[in-house]
Amino acid sequence: MEVRLLKRKEAALLQKEKQMRDAIQTKKNDKDEEVAALRQQVQAARDEAAAAAEQLREAESEAKALHSMTQRMILTEEEKEEVVFKRCWLARFWGLAVRYGKCFLFDELPAMLLFHYCVFYIAGIYPDIAASKHEHWSSLAPLPFEVVTSAGQIAKEEASSKGNEVSKERNKLVSDFNEITGKGNIESMLSVEKGLRELASLKVEDAVVLALAQHQRLSLLREYASDYKLGDPKFMEALELSKEEAEDVLFKQSWLVYFWGRAKQHGVEEEIAEERSQFWIDHLGQQPSLHDAIDVERGLIELKKLGIEHLLWEASRRDVDTN
Predict the structure, then answer these.
(1) CA 153 to CA 80: how far, in whole Å?
(2) Which residues fall in a coiled-coil region (predicted)?
């Protein structure tokens, strides 16, 4: 009996031991599963955090790119000045086209072929568009002559280092420019460039220069030629520039002073910029002569041939990108 009882107890103990081992193993498996689940959750959280960080980096990169693009769309103070200058150029020459087109349309046409060409070109072609173009550009630049010549004079005084008074005038001019252009964006620059290309393609500037030069001289020829008084002092005086021609020279001298001054400042065409800037500064303010009229036309051709305006734009854009 005792042997059986002992065997039963032993069997019971073994069974209980097995149950305990099974329970421990089950708990261990449960813990392993729980640990594995926790590890998966941690990894998922890490992956989610990494994805969020990547999205943040992408968002920051996009924000920087957008900011950079926005900054590139906004004009600098110098670029705003250039927009104002070019609007003034457009307003002035379309205004002269309207003025001389109306004047010549009803005048008795001179016999000289060159003047015939000038008159017919202005009076016959421009009225279709000149009035509307002048209205548009003059609304953006109501005082083109005054603005450009004032800027030229200030640039001349700055070169002479006249101190605080010049700085005040310069600041006032910049303030006036800001009022005219507002915030100023790339669209306004593109608009004036398109306008200048249109003006050039229609040869408005060339026709206006011819009109200014020929109108007074041919009137005098009609007056004196019949009496053979071509040697008369009054006739010789007429070979001097008229008021309108003198204004045109002053306007263009101021234009050249401005752009060569900027070229000198930005290191564009360094070999000649300082000399050209000083040349036009020295001539600005003097009584314009026929020789000066020829010089300014050559100066404008040189400015265009060297691509100074485009080089200044590239220099300005590089500064924007750097900043």
Answers:
(1) 19
(2) 6-69
Q: CA-CA distance, 55 to 50, in Å (whole number)?
A: 9
Distances (CA, A) of 124 to 102, 129, 189: 10, 11, 30
What length is written for the chain? 323
Q: Which two tokens stand for residue 110?
A: 């001179």
- The token pair at 226 is 């019949």
Domains of the chain: which residue ranges? 75-322
With beta carbons less than 8 A apart as the criterion, state whether 84 and 147 touch: yes
Rounded distance, CA 90 to CA 148, Å? 12
How far is it, in rounded angstroms, from Cα 88 to Cα 148?
A: 7
Helical residues (DSSP H) of 107-228, grouped into ranges: 113-120, 130-140, 144-159, 164-181, 186-201, 204-224
Are 93 and 141 contacting, i.e. CB atoms less than 8 angstroms apart? no
Neighbours of 24 (CB within 10 A): 10
**10-residue block means of pLDDT along the chain (323 residues)?**
67 70 69 78 84 88 76 84 94 90 47 46 61 92 92 83 54 58 77 93 84 61 46 54 89 96 92 94 89 92 95 89 74
Question: Residue type at 60?
Answer: E
Read off the pTM. 0.70
